Amino acid sequence: MRKAAIAAVAAMLLVVLLPRHSEGQGEGQGYTAPRTKAGQPDLNGFWQALNTAHWDLEAHDAAAGPILQLGAAYAVPPGLGVVIGGPIPYKPEALVMKKKYAANALKEDAEIKCYLPGVPRVMYMPYPIQIVQSTEYILMMSEFATAQRTINMTTNNRPPADTWMGWSNGKWDGDTLVIDSRGFLGSTIGALDQEGAIQVRFLDRAGNYHTDGLHVVERIRRTGPDHLSYEATIEDPNVYTRPWTISMPLYRRVEPDMQLGEFKCEEFVSDLVYGKYQKGSGR
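Above: the chain's sequence. Below: its structure in token form.
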């Protein structure tokens, strides 16, 4: 009887401790995504990145936040980074500017001023993204500043003008959505313009940046019922010695009645951005 009990306990431990290959079936490369009525892989839903790319795309240790009085509340969490084969391949002079931007992030980061975040930054900010899909267009919407981007699926036009979120053309490569984006608007960096900086946009809170020469190719694939694989190859000859790629999963938000909330941050920054122009400001 004792031997039988021991054998039963051993069998239970094996079930708990051995890798659960059966649960992995249907995830990753072998997963077949559900289809829309048009037969395309279905990417509709609410998705969100759960990593530290928002703070720093590269691997980094925990660090103090930008405002000492806030203590640990706004400290930087540690992260392994999302850059494939990092570090980011900056040109020497561009790396010098990156360090200056990092030191002046409280003044220079467009996020603080509630400007639209651009691509790919919008995809890994700590706000959900809603994807709405049709045969002609794919719409991606973020809570932050009500940012949205339209992916043109039936045309391959050049950008008619530079904009904050760029111009995106999409196509299907098997089950992978490939998005080619150009036409990004730069942002004037006030404190550093006099040092010869050109118009730039931040990619994270650590001062990593691009210019209006940005070209982004994204690859999005459904790898499971609640997961997307997201990759973005970033090219900007003004800043980098070669193209480089970030990679991360996006997770489905599965709360009942999930929807995007309103984060209209303009009202939070009006004094910061326009205070010196307001009547009676004394500035």
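Residues 5-26 have pLDDT under 50 and may be disordered.
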